[in-house]
Amino acid sequence: MGQEELMSQAEDVADQFLRVTKQYLPHLARLCLISTFLEDGIRMWFQWHEQRDYIEATWSCGYFLATCFVLLNLTGQLGGCVLILSRNFVQYACFGLFGIIALQTVAYSILWDVKFLMRNLALGGGLLLLLAECRSEGKSMFAGVPSMGESSPKQYMQLGGRVLLVLMFMTLLHFDPSFFSILQNMVGTALIILVAIGFKTKLAALTLVIWLLAINVYFNAFWTVPAYKPMHDFLKYDFFQTTSVIGGLLLVVALGPGGVSMDEKKKEW
Q1: What is the pLDDT of residues 79-107, one digit of tens each?
Q2: Neighbouring residues of 98: CB distance < 8 A, sequence distance ≥ 6
Q3: Chain centre distance of CA 168
Q4: Which residues contact 139 (CB under 8 A, 6 or more apart)?
Q5: 245 — phi, psi (to 5°)?
Q6: pTM of this structure
Q7: Which residue ranges run through the membrane (predicted)?
Q8: Under DSSP, is residue 266 helix (H, G, I), strand (E, B) or coil?
Q9: Which of 37, 186, 209, 218 has the largest CB neighbor count within 10 A?
Q10: How many CB atoms lie within 10 A of CB 90?
């Protein structure tokens, strides 16, 4: 069996999966995407005093400003999640969550930690895809109105979202000489390039979803670590951030790569 035939069969399986899950996939994608914000908002509630004391000690900003920071994170994240899941004011919810990402990046000094910064940028990529989906739904309300083609802002949102999402995978690359690590790096790099340039996008994104899901459950199994240990919170944080990126990739699978992609250009050839 040739390489092209194998690829064709894999694409057929992916298409069949999409046909079966078409009605449910966008909902699952959104739920996964907002999971890290939902978990963090709930954590702010249960760790209110610890979070407030940390911000107050780190930034010497006083009790009032530290309390405002925790309150803003709690209400901003939980409120944004509710709006996105209920499909109300999704655009404003996304902008609010962008603001939360930016605020936390500065407040927790993530700006100077390359790994965490790349993961936060990947989260932003997921939100960009959610904004693109929102524009798509808004456009479908005017289905009978003549159009000059797909909205350019939506195309570039999808491109930006795809490119930012692959940053998550760059943090998973292992630079050691073992055969398994080299193979994993080669396959992973090939897949993220395919998603970034928009070639065989749905198949590549679906493969990355399966790969990332396996890695997430295996390496970030926070439920196996007692809650009183610091490692529990670290693994939990990583688990839900990774789940959010999986949600972004599921949106790529559900919506396609958009106009700025090799898949779209192939249709013109």
Answers
A1: 999 999 999 999 999 999 999 999 999 99
A2: 124, 127
A3: 9
A4: 147, 151, 154
A5: -70, -35
A6: 0.85
A7: 63-85, 92-111, 179-196, 203-219, 239-260
A8: helix
A9: 37
A10: 21
